[in-house]
Amino acid sequence: MKRPDAEIVRRALTGGKRVLGDTTNLHKLIEMSMNEPLISMTENLFDQTPIGKFAQNLEKNGYTQEAPEPVFNEWAMQLRHSGKMTSQNGIINYTSRVWGCFLDVARPDLTCLKDYPRDLFDGQASWNGFDAAEVMDEHRGKYLVMLCAYEGDPFIFVWQGWAFLNPDGNDRYRTKVISAHEALEYWGEKITGLEQHAAHLHETSLATWAYAKYGDKHLVEVAPVNSQAGPKKKSPLNKGKPWRAASGPNILLLDRMPATQKPGCGTHASPKPHRRRGHWKTLSHPRYRHHPQYQKKIYVKPSFVGPKQATYEGNIYRLVQPLEEAINV
Fold first, then answer.
1. For residue 270, what pLDDT is reported?
2. Which of 267, 272, 258, 263 is nearest to 311 (CA)?
3. Where are the beta strands (DSSP E) in the chain?
4. What is the DSSP letter of 249?
5. Does residue 134 register a pLDDT over 70?
6. Contacts of 141 by beta carbon, 8 Å cutoff, 6+ apart
7. Which end of the chain is flanked by fewer CB atoms within 10 Å, N or C?
8. For residue 150, is it left (φ>0), alpha (ψ between -120 and 50) or beta?
9. What does the pLDDT look like over 151-186, one tens digit per residue?
10. Which residues, 6 or more positions from 239, have their beta carbon under 8 angstroms from its beta carbon?
């Protein structure tokens, strides 16, 4: 199963002079991401995807204030985005494909991720006295490697840096990005546009985690059956081409698992897989007495009834549950 991001990754790693930006550790960083889940939304512009539409509605209510827990510790994501930019010829419309891998800043196998900038949080003079990785985790912080390709432009633009939620002093959080030193040195004043793309990509991940918790459809991992044996063995043919040996699952949005039972089968004890509609209920069970919504109406997300994993046409489909559901809180 070919990864949907294979083309942009291939271009970034084999493009020669067509790759612009900080390429420090680029190959190693991308190779790490190839074994992580991929969330790809490129068939439509992001605003037209289910998560994009969901984010537009939540944005009015400040969805970043909740800062939902990420479903994955590390992941890759790509989307198509449209906007306007100012050039020598005036304001022009553009459409770009943006890819990024979000890596744990505490990774022990990559020393560059420990080079935290001193001004990471507003009003914080230094890192003395607290654990930087702990603070980044609290603020949904990740080290982000981003590739950006504009339609009609042969170049791949590379950016690296930190993306996290920064409190604004009014009990709200906003995405903030800080470019790595090498990225700043390369792009100079031109880095603003790439930082905006990076911030949008981070906000997209927040919207994805919120959608996983409240949206109509569910995140489902899809991977070939043979991927259960672990990462593919390195081959001389794949040397320098990590996209060909990728083992990370693709993430789809589904409202039910693929049908694996014959028509007419299924009992009350073992029902056919189906979807239970979303509904409102009062949170009245005593075990939730300390919950802020206790004795209040809450929305219960539509759910799967039946197996949380299915094998269909050579692929394994596995339901991805938000952290709160996984630990039954």
1. 53
2. 258
3. 19-21, 38-45, 75-87, 90-103, 142-150, 156-167, 173-179, 218-224, 250-254, 274-276, 279-282, 297-300, 303-305, 309-312, 315-319
4. P
5. no
6. 105, 135, 162, 163, 164, 165
7. C
8. beta
9. 888 899 999 988 888 766 655 667 888 888 888 899
10. none
Residues near 32 by beta carbon (within 8 Å), at least 6 away in sequence: 74, 101, 103, 107, 110
- The torsion angles phi and psi of 247, rounded to 5 degrees, stand at -125, 0
User: What does the pLDDT look like over 3-24, one tens digit per residue?
Assistant: 899 999 999 998 766 899 988 8
Helix (H) or strand (E) holding 136: helix 132-138
The 10s digit of each residue's pLDDT in 208-231 is 988 887 788 889 999 888 765 555
Category of 118 on φ-ψ map: left (φ > 0), alpha (ψ -120 to 50) or beta: alpha
pTM of the full structure = 0.81
Among left, alpha and beta (phi > 0; psi -120 to 50; other), residue 17 is: alpha
Residues 76, 93, 7, 41, Cα dihedral to 10°? 40
pLDDT at position 128: 44
**Is the distance from CB of 209 to CB of 202 less than 8 angstroms?**
no
pLDDT tens readout for residues 178-219: 888 888 899 998 899 899 999 999 989 988 988 887 788 889
- Helix, strand or coil for residue 45? strand
CB 275 within 8 Å of CB 302: yes
Rounded to an integer, what distance in angstroms lies between the CA atom of residue 316 and that of residue 274?
18
